[in-house]
Amino acid sequence: MGRTKLDSINEFARHGYKVRVSCSCGRKVDWSPFEMIVMLQKRRLPYDVERLEPKLRCGFCGARGAKISAAMPEIISNVR
Ligand SMILES: [Zn+2]
Q1: Rg of the Cα trace of the chain?
Q2: What are the phi and psi torsion angles at 27 (to 5°)?
Q3: How far lies 46's CA from each of 2, 24, 36, 74, 76, in Å?
Q4: How far is the CA of 80 from the centre of ligand 1 (A)?
Q5: Each residue of 10-53: pLDDT tens digit?
Q6: Burial class (CB in 10 A: 0-12, 13-18, 19+), 45
Q7: Would you list the domain boundaries of the chain?
Q8: pTM (predicted TM-score)
Q9: Burial of 66 per CB tally in 10 Å (0-12, 13-18, 19+)
């Protein structure tokens, strides 16, 4: 399927993807994986995507059970 193995937030950081958290209400938030790791540490949440998804709460509608997917970061001009 051409899908990179992204089963942990650490993998998003390693591949340079943003972490897109989508709720069934349509709200989508793109996290920097590094900010996400800090947040997960503070809240003692797992890095493992499968275990994390049901624990994430939407900041907009308050529902639990977000979907995590990869988002391409904007192209940064100083990357060579
Ligand atoms: Zn929501």
Answers
A1: 13
A2: -70, 130
A3: 25, 21, 11, 27, 29
A4: 38
A5: 999 999 999 999 999 999 999 999 999 999 999 999 999 999 99
A6: middle
A7: 9-71
A8: 0.82
A9: buried
Q: Which amino acid is located at 68 in the chain? A: I
Report how far ligand 1's centroid is from the alpha carbon of 21 (Å).
10
What pLDDT does 4 receive? 63
**Ion ligand 1: residues, Cβ under 5 Å:** 23, 25, 27, 58, 60-61, 63
Q: What pLDDT is stored for residue 24 in this prediction?
A: 94
pLDDT at 75 (0 to 100): 63
Query: Distance, CA 79 to ligand 1 centroid (Å)?
Result: 34
Interval between CA 62 and ligand 1 midpoint (Å):
6
Quick: pLDDT tens for 51-61.
999 999 998 99
